[in-house]
Amino acid sequence: MLEQKNDIKNELCNIYSQVLERELSMEDFGTTTGLLEKFHIDSLIALQIVVKIEQVFGIIIEDDNVAIEMLDSLDKAVDFIEHGSQG
Predict the structure, then answer these.
(1) Which of 22, 34, 59, 77 has its CA 20 to 30 A from that of 67?
(2) 32 is in which domain, residue-wise?
């Protein structure tokens, strides 16, 4: 389970790197929330990240509030991908 979480986190890091067009490592994310502010993510960039997450993980994120919450925290994104997308 821990290995799966780490795989998801690494993939999310790759997604953020691709969309933001800059090299990011897991250390850049830290363990806190506030990623939207930290990486200066506006609504257009947020939408691009959500679409990429949906494509990569084969999930659908319908609730805008959930999307914003999960984009602001890597741990919340991992939890949603693991549990929230299962139906």
Answers:
(1) 22
(2) 2-86
